[in-house]
Amino acid sequence: MRATIQRVTTANVTVDQTIVSEISNGLLIFLGIEEADNEEDIKWLSNRIANLRIFNDAQNVMNLSLLQVKGQALVISQFTLHASTKKGNRPSYIKAAKPAIAIPLYESFVTQLEKDLGQKVGTGIFGADMKVALLNDGPVTIQIDTKNKE
């Protein structure tokens, strides 16, 4: 499971010219799922994201977590995070999980993150043509892969 996390002051996702979810002050999380991912990956990644200290404290030092600042989260499925660019000019997405596997894992991740944060988490629509708008704060962008836990 791979996540690209951006600290944002605002973010929204639009499908068919309708905003389906939006947040302010929080994290925009692009989530890529592969076939080998499981519940252990979900719990580890959700906990890591909820407690990642990338928000500024009173001294303007990145020392506070999403939990501590009571920020919001928006999770967008993004199979392209598993793109392989080793051969040719067209990326391969062979490692990305097919929808039958990815959708339940995506939904489970959202549920786990809601549990860890104690609040509702915004989402896009899995498989839809989504337009994501954001104002990156910092900019702060972090990548986490559950295959690199150590």
Question: What are the salient characteristics of this protein?
Answer:
150 residues; hydrolase; EC 3.1.1.96; five-stranded mixed beta sheet; DTD-like_sf; alpha/beta; D-tyrosyl-trna(Tyr) Deacylase, Chain: A; D-aminoacyl-tRNA deacylase
What is the topology?
Elements: E1 2-15, E2 18-32, H1 39-51, E3 55-56, E4 62-64, H2 66-69, E5 72-77, H3 99-117, E6 122-123, E7 130-145
Parallel strand pairs: 2-5, 5-6
Antiparallel strand pairs: 1-2, 1-7, 3-4
Helix pairs in contact: 1-3
Motif (Gly-cisPro motif, important for rejection of L-amino acids): 138-139
GO molecular function, one term: D-aminoacyl-tRNA deacylase activity
Keywords: Cytoplasm, Hydrolase, RNA-binding, tRNA-binding
Q: What spatial order of strands do you see in the largest sheet?
A: 6-5-2-1-7
- DSSP strand count: 7
Overall pLDDT level:
96
- How many helices? 3
User: Whole-number radius of gyration?
Assistant: 15 Å
* First and last CA, distance: 15 Å
CATH class: Alpha Beta
Run of helices and strands: EEHEEHEHEE
CATH architecture: 3-Layer(bba) Sandwich
Mind telling me the CATH superfamily name? D-tyrosyl-tRNA(Tyr) deacylase
**What does the oligomeric state look like here?**
single chain
Which consecutive residue ranges, at least 5 long each, have pLDDT under 50?
Answer: none
**CATH third-level topology:** D-tyrosyl-trna(Tyr) Deacylase, Chain: A
Spatial shape? globular
Helix % is 10-25%
Which structural class do the helices and strands define?
A: alpha/beta
Instruction: Please tell me the total number of domains.
Output: 1
Taking the sheet with the most strands, its summary is: 5 strands, mixed
Strand content: 35-45%
Family: Belongs to the DTD family.
Catalytic activity: a D-aminoacyl-tRNA + H2O = a tRNA + a D-alpha-amino acid + H(+); glycyl-tRNA(Ala) + H2O = tRNA(Ala) + glycine + H(+)
Keywords: Cytoplasm, Hydrolase, RNA-binding, tRNA-binding
Protein name: D-aminoacyl-tRNA deacylase
